[in-house]
Amino acid sequence: MWHRSSVLIVVLVLALDAHASWAGVIVGAVVLQGPPPAPRKLAVTIDQYVCGDAKDAEDLVVSPKNGIRSVVAWLENPPAGAPGAASAPPVEMDQRGCLFIPRVVLVPAGGTVNFLNSDRLLHNLHGRPKSNPSFTRAQPKGRTIPLSFPRPEIFSVDCDLHSWMKAWVVVTEHPFYAVSDAEGRFRLEGVPPGRYKLRLWHETLGTATRDVVVPASGPAELTVEMARPGAR
Amino acid sequence: MTTGHATPLLLRSPLGALVRAVARVRASVHAKLATALLLVTLLVIAMGAVSFQMLSATVRHTRLLDEAHQRVDWSRQLEHALAMQMHYTSLALLERGDAAVAPILRENNRFNDTLERVEAAAPKDERALIRTIRTAQDDAMAVVADIANALRDNRTDAALTALQRRELSLYGAIETSVRRLVAMEESRMTALRQDLEAANRRSLMLLGGVAIGALVVALVAGFAISWSFILPVREAHAFLRTVARGDFTATIVVPNRDEFGELAEQMNRMTRELARLQTDQRAAAAELSRVNERLQDASRAKSEFLANMSHELRTPLNAILGFTEMMRDGLYGETPPEIEEPLADIQTNGRHLLRLINDVLDLSKIEAGRMDLAPMDYSVHDVLQTVRASLRSLAVEKGLALTVSAPPDLPLAFGDAKRLVQCLMNLVGNALKFTHEGSVDVGAALDGASLVYRVRDTGIGIPAAQLDKVFDEFRQVDATITREYGGTGLGLSITRRFVELHGGRIWVESEPGRGSTFWFSVPLRLDDGASRVASGATAR
């Protein structure tokens, strides 16, 4: 029943001045096809003093112009000779007001995610990766739990104590990954000109693939429409 | 100000002074009533205000109590969460499984959440204690996390160590503090409850006091005002009764300066006016009675004079008539033929004068109260025959028929026959006088205990307008009649007097041109008492 709607791809190639012969830019936007989702509240039944009475459902967040937040975009076929995942400083994922912030983090393979707890109560991190070792850790306020993931994959992290809490860790294998912002925009920089397959992933909307041509000069711009599974 | 009424006991108490004070207030009745009503209304409003205050105080206290109750409840939840944490921790240590770990964490979070609520709601004096618990709980949170993680990592020894070395002492400290907290909240709640009860008692007493006050004020004001109205009304009642008895010297005094005071003043003015009128009227009445007495004296003197005069007149007249008779009878020798006629004239006029004098004498006697009936048994037929015999020649002269009609079986009557004959003679004489042709009928009939005499003629009749005057003295229908028919005009008047002396009455029916019928009724049997009463009543 997994119906994939037709995807309209608009590729605009604009002749802009290129500041590096190999360093092209992909500027994209992801918009939701169809009407925006109705706002939805998740009831909070425990630890209300810290967590509040209800939480907005954040599994699909859309801007007023239908831009989709937290969509992960990356190149399926990274350019040859591209550097491996940069040895970047650890990435942070905080738990504040009984929410994971941010909801999606990118961490290069082998890199470390520092899980924080700003709430004055116990959270219990519970990750269920397939390629990396799974983990479950009780976490008091103020304690940082650093965890590193050697193999690229996308997996979710929950809190055993607060059912509505959910986050995603994207372990990347190369630098050409990006997460869409609140307006649904993302940007992949330093892409050498050429043809690429662009992969898009969203936690509820699934995946999509697009062909992108990065011109010799100027950014490659594209808008991707994604639809809810089951929707036309 | 003293009345004959039984004054209520209350009016003799200080309340009476209050009643008089209210009466003396210079304000209208309306103003007094309105003031009293306002006073009572204000007290009722005050009652409402007290009730409202009471209610809001109760509500406030109840809310405080509810809050305290909530805090006690939370404190107990703290104790419970703590106990459950220990329980689950022990369980997890025994089971060594991951499944048992989450409940420990949940209980710790529950403790934490409850503690947050307690802290937010806590009064100032509990804050320090709660901060102590908080600090310990923050530590405990870390220890619980460590124990949980150690259990998951199958490091049971480390978990046990953490439990024994750190958690137990922390929990001990927390438990002690929480117990203190619970004790504080409970004592606070007890104090609140006592406060609430005391406040309720106070409010109830205040409310009762105000209610009783309102009642007393309403009663006293009602009593004072109503009696300040009732007293003058009673005064007025007694006063008017006195005045109604005819004592116009009475005065009414009321303390009221309101409408009742004005009313009393008006009554006094009225009585003074009445007294003045009475004095005037008495003087006038005395004057009138003096005049009346004089008039009566004069009238009596006149009647006596007339009676005496008539008598004195009759004596020489009888002599004149006697000598004339004798002269005509030739006792003094042959009378010359030329004086025959003058002698006849003398006789005729003399007789007329005598009749006139007799009539005047009768009337005078009646008016002077000296006419007495001489009743005796008599036969009605005899009376009628006497009348007929006396006047038949006159009827024959005028060519009239004079008939007598009466039932043959009339019983013997009792009365003054002579006077009745005189009455009938008058009536029949008049009838003959005013009838030119036809007949005159005289009769009698029995009507119960009355005897009704009747004289009917076929004469000229009497106009309807004159019918009720024919029995007055010196009254004939008009002056021309007197000239044409002669007569003294006293006959009918005397007849009426005699009938009335008999205790009877007289009336007439007439149709001008067709004739008249005179009736009079007298008792068949006149008794002496009735006679005397009748004569007394008609005496002028």
Tally of alpha and pi helices of chain A: 1
In terms of DSSP E residues, the strand content of chain B is 5-15%
N to C succession of SSEs of chain B = HHHHHHHHEHEEHEEHHEEH
Unreliable stretches of chain A? 1-21
Order of helices and strands of chain A: EEEHEEEEEEEEEEEEEEEE
The level of helicity of chain A is under 10%
Cα Rg of chain A: 19 Å
The class by helix and strand makeup of chain A works out as mainly beta
Tell me how many strands of chain A there are.
19
Q: What is the typical, i.e. mean, pLDDT of chain A?
A: 85
Q: Globular, elongated, flat, extended or rod-shaped: what is the shape of chain A?
A: globular
Q: What is the distance, rounded to the nearest whole angstrom, between the alpha carbons of the first and last residues of chain A?
A: 12 Å
* Integer average pLDDT of chain B: 84
Poorly predicted runs of 5 or more residues of chain B: 530-540
Radius of gyration of chain B: 65 Å
User: Shape of chain B, please?
Assistant: rod-shaped
Largest interface: A-B, 18 and 22 residues
- Estimated share of beta-strand residues of chain A: over 45%
The percent range for helix content of chain B is over 70%
